[in-house]
């Protein structure tokens, strides 16, 4: 069998207000070609199909058009999709009965029986080829509170969930038939960018899951979603994140996008390889380190001229602020006229000062002179003393208030 592992599509994401639908369409065209080129038997999508639990009609149209076209072009392709934390589990799974005729299985809801017990077998999907079961997939969506067995912590509850799934599958599968695990979680030992809020807000402080839970007999590969950087987990070759096909923030601009190819032969893992994807839109950060506005404007002048279109690069500017500059935005916009880039943000960086701060009481706070406080704030933000002209204006305001 040949399996392709992808995740974290985030269809419908707006990048600093810019619609990314053309980027997603470009990726899906590439993915369709790749599936045909490698003659894949199954496509595994490990969560975060959409960027929002309530995706737009346009986002859903892109998604369903891809599923229809890839199924028609590859009649023997099996597709397994799980819900991520950005997805609505119920909404994603709702069209399941219709999509089953296209050999597509979607797992979003953790179902329970009449006794309130988890229906583990509902998450089992046989991997079939030539009318024969050549493997089993345990397709686990993002687990929310109440989805997993009662435990003293999230990590222990999720571990017990996977343990129970594995033990239940052993009751129905034939010996030596390989197992594929799918999950949408943060595994211990995985790498997250320090500056990437889009990843750090996903788990929301809940504990990471130890990859040891996947170290079981017959589990040949674990396809994870959630983290946007493609990576192995804790040195395990067969426990991997595929990463997102598009960078979700400037913190991810140096990530390598693509999907994973898993080849299974004679019931054993033969090879895992990476298939690279080149996103159609570049992310540019100028300068490499924050510089004063004049130098930033000089670097902008070196950008290529041309019209702005759907594949023009996204631009982030890093401006070192040493004093208030009310016209900064206007100067930047003027400099960008005729440049074939799309400005996302002009991030101000401030010089730090070494003045030691200390905690004070409420009574001490009442004795502080407003002018002194303003001067201290100005110094902390801009690294130098407040100009006399500004002090004079502020003093007039203070006197007006105290009248």
From TrEMBL:
Gene3D superfamilies: 3.60.21.10. CDD domains: MPP_Mre11_N. Pfam families: Metallophos, SbcD_C. It comes from the Bacteria. PANTHER family: COMPONENT OF ATP-DEPENDENT DSDNA EXONUCLEASE (PTHR30337), NUCLEASE SBCCD SUBUNIT D (PTHR30337:SF0). InterPro entries: Calcineurin-like_PHP, DNA_Repair-Maintenance_Comp, Metallo-depent_PP-like, Mre11_N, SbcD, SbcD_C. Keywords: DNA recombination, DNA replication, Endonuclease, Exonuclease, Hydrolase, Nuclease. SbcCD cleaves DNA hairpin structures. These structures can inhibit DNA replication and are intermediates in certain DNA recombination reactions. The complex acts as a 3'->5' double strand exonuclease that can open hairpins. It also has a 5' single-strand endonuclease activity. Residues 281-378 form the Nuclease SbcCD subunit D C-terminal domain. One of its GO terms (molecular function) is endonuclease activity. GO terms for biological process: DNA recombination; DNA replication. Residues 1-229 form the Calcineurin-like phosphoesterase domain. It comes from Dysgonomonas capnocytophagoides. Heterodimer of SbcC and SbcD. This is Nuclease SbcCD subunit D. Belongs to the SbcD family.
